[in-house]
Structures are given as structure tokens and as C-alpha cells.
Specification:
Number of helices: 9
Structural class: alpha+beta
Strand order of the largest sheet: 2-1-5-4-3
Radius of gyration: 26 Å
Shape: elongated
Largest sheet: 5 strands, antiparallel
């Protein structure tokens, strides 16, 4: 039986065959139990975990019912290693005599996955709501601007013309905001991309606007090219680096931005396990993200800066998500890091 489809799963999987011996262990299982596949395969559950009554009971119940059974709180130990607190789902494998699939997750990992899923759904709902509102606003906004321009041509008094200029200016500002809300929904146009070329371009743009803030490059030259839309990644990274520069604008004690790139291994993105991923991080030594908005920093219209639109990070997250990637934020006073993770083997979201 082929188990190739289990190799990239983020969750640990053991396959049991005759005598309830391990016939297969995926890489996530090797990581979880800190044992190589060679030391897992061929052994029984008792060999590996000793008198693990909870696991034995879960296997018995799945076999008796012929259906999946989940044990929510399982404690397993291997030798003298610290005990693992796990959720385990045991499933009979259709078409294979006496074969069972055991799927293990850390309880805290399970909670983290559930939380990330809720956040992703909430953010998607927010984006769709904002996008719908933007569409509704766009047409009447054009009418307001057009009417103000026609009115301006009919007026002779300079002060009244000033008022129409205010209307036109504010309408243009709102039009720009609406366009920014709608822009990220263009699908990526993939081609071979060098992340360092993207970052150098971003550095040049931000440095021109904020010449007093040094931007340091800490690049891993071994990173390969990968499939991506360089324009969308440029926009995403520009939003993040520009945010960092704006946060540092009032800082007097040696403001600095550092752009890092590295290879990340064994990363889970959009519920899919990747052996290799690209990591691009933007670090600044500014005041940090306010605690009250830290959990909502990627939501539309949430900003920690006076006069900020609250769209830069939302757009960045949308563009990165369209590449099958993820953005994480780690912030404390004096150090804020935004980390982008992108799959290296395929830039296309699945």
C-alpha cells in the first residue's frame, strides 16, 4: 500500500497492520515522537509506548465499531522522554485488511489550529464585507465627484470654487481608498522570482521616503528562485516595511529596520505540510504594536497609527495568502517582527 499522500501532512500519522505493528510513520510522526522511521516501523504499540491503556482502548473501539474513534486526552510516553499530551484519531483503512491509521496532534497544537482557522474565517468575512461596501461606494462616489466638477465650472466666486475643490479632493481620496480595498483580489501572475530582488526594490522605495532610517539587509544567498507574482509580493513587503518606517518616524534612539531571509523547514501553511519554505522577516526597534489591537492587526481598518487607513497589513496578508503563504507578527516594545512564510516547492495556493 502506498502512503505517499501522508508525507506532507502536518499531523503525525502511524499506520498499523497485522498484529497492530507500525507499518509506516510519516515525517511529522518522526518529529513528534523524536524517533526515526526505522525505529518506529515494525514495533507494536506496547513496544513503543508501554502500557498505554488509553491508546489501546481507542484502537479497540475503532476496530469494534468499524469507524473512526477520537481520544481527546491521551498521555503517551516513550522511554524516559517527557510525556506527550495528545489528541488521537484511530481510523480503519478501507480496502486494507486490519489496517488502521492513527493520527496524533498535540492538544495545544489542536487549539492553535482551531484558533487560526477561526481567525482566517473571520478575516475572510471581514474582507468580503469591506469589498462589498467598496463596490457599493464606488459608483455614487464617481457621481459626487462628477457633479462637483460640473458645479465648479458654473461658479464664479473664488470662495465657492474652494468648496468644490474640497469636495473633489475628498472624493478622490475616498476613490483611492476604495481602489486599494479592491486591488488585492487580482489573482497572482506567477513567474520565477528572486525574493532578494523584490526586497532590494522595496528597500530603495522606502529609503527614498525615509532617508534617516537605515535599512539593513541580512539575506541568505542560498535561497532559490520560486514561483510567485513579484509585483504582488513587492506590494505586500512594501506595506510591511513602510509600516515599520512610519512606526520609527518619531523614534530618536537609533531607529533601524532589518530585512532577513532564511530557509524554514517543516512548516505548515494553509493546513499543508511543507518540507521547505521561504522566510522573509522585517524587524524594527520601534515602540511595538499596541496590545489592544495586536490580535486584530490584520483586520481591515484597524490601525495603530494616527491617520492610518488600516489597510496596509490587510492587503499584505491577502496577497501573501493568495500565494499559499502566511504572515505572523511578534511584537514587544523595542522589537517588532513581521514574518512572511511562503512555500518554496510551489508558490500556488491549493
Amino acid at each position: 500500500m502506498s502512503y505517499a499522500g501522508l508525507e506532507l501532512l502536518a499531523t503525525a500519522v502511524l499506520m498499523l497492520r497485522e498484529g497492530r505493528r507500525v507499518a509506516y510513520a510519516n515525517p511529522a510522526a518522526e518529529n513528534l515522537f523524536e524517533l526515526s522511521r526505522a525505529k518506529l516501523v515494525g514495533h507494536t504499540m506496547k513496544d513503543l509506548f508501554g502500557d498505554a491503556r488509553g491508546l489501546t482502548a481507542a484502537v479497540d473501539k475503532a476496530v469494534a465499531s468499524g469507524a473512526s474513534y477520537t481520544e481527546q486526552e491521551l498521555e503517551l510516553g516513550i522511554g524516559s522522554k517527557p510525556k506527550l499530551h495528545l489528541v488521537c484519531t484511530v481510523s480503519p483503512v478501507e480496502g486494507a485488511d486490519h489496517a488502521l491509521a492513527l493520527e496524533f496532534r498535540h492538544i495545544d497544537q489542536q487549539l492553535k489550529i482551531a484558533r487560526e482557522e477561526r481567525l482566517r474565517e473571520q478575516q475572510q468575512a471581514n474582507r468580503e464585507l469591506i469589498r462589498s461596501l467598496a463596490h457599493e461606494i464606488k459608483n455614487p462616489l464617481g457621481g459626487i465627484c462628477g457633479a462637483a466638477q460640473l458645479l465648479e465650472r458654473e461658479l464664479e466666486h473664488a470662495q465657492l470654487i474652494e468648496y468644490t475643490q474640497v469636495i473633489i479632493g475628498e472624493a478622490d481620496r475616498l476613490q483611492s481608498l476604495v481602489n486599494r480595498l479592491l486591488t488585492p483580489h487580482r489573482l497572482p501572475s506567477y513567474r520565477r522570482t528572486n525574493i532578494h530582488e523584490v526586497l532590494v526594490r522595496v528597500k530603495g522605495v522606502v529609503q527614498a521616503e525615509f532617508p534617516h532610517i537605515p535599512i539593513v539587509s541580512d539575506f541568505d544567498a542560498s535561497l532559490p528562485e520560486f514561483d510567485a507574482d513579484p509585483e504582488q509580493l513587492t506590494q505586500a513587503l512594501l506595506n510591511i516595511v513602510k509600516n515599520a518606517a512610519q512606526a520609527l518616524s518619531g523614534t530618536t534612539r537609533g531607529p533601524e529596520i532589518v530585512m532577513h531571509t532564511r530557509v524554514a523547514r517543516g512548516v505548515t501553511l494553509a493546513k499543508r505540510r511543507h518540507r521547505l519554505a521561504l522566510m522573509a522577516a522585517v524587524e524594527d526597534n520601534g515602540p511595538g504594536v499596541a496590545p489592544e489591537i495586536r490580535d486584530r492587526i490584520f483586520y481591515p481598518l484597524v490601525s495603530g497609527r494616527e491617520g492610518g487607513s488600516g489597510l496596509g497589513l490587510t492587503i499584505a496578508q491577502t496577497l501573501v495568502a493568495q500565494h499559499g503563504g502566511n504572515i505572523e507578527c511578534d511584537s514587544a516594545p523595542g522589537r517588532t517582527v513581521f514574518t512572511i512564510l511562503l512555500p518554496l516547492e510551489s508558490g500556488r495556493a491549493v
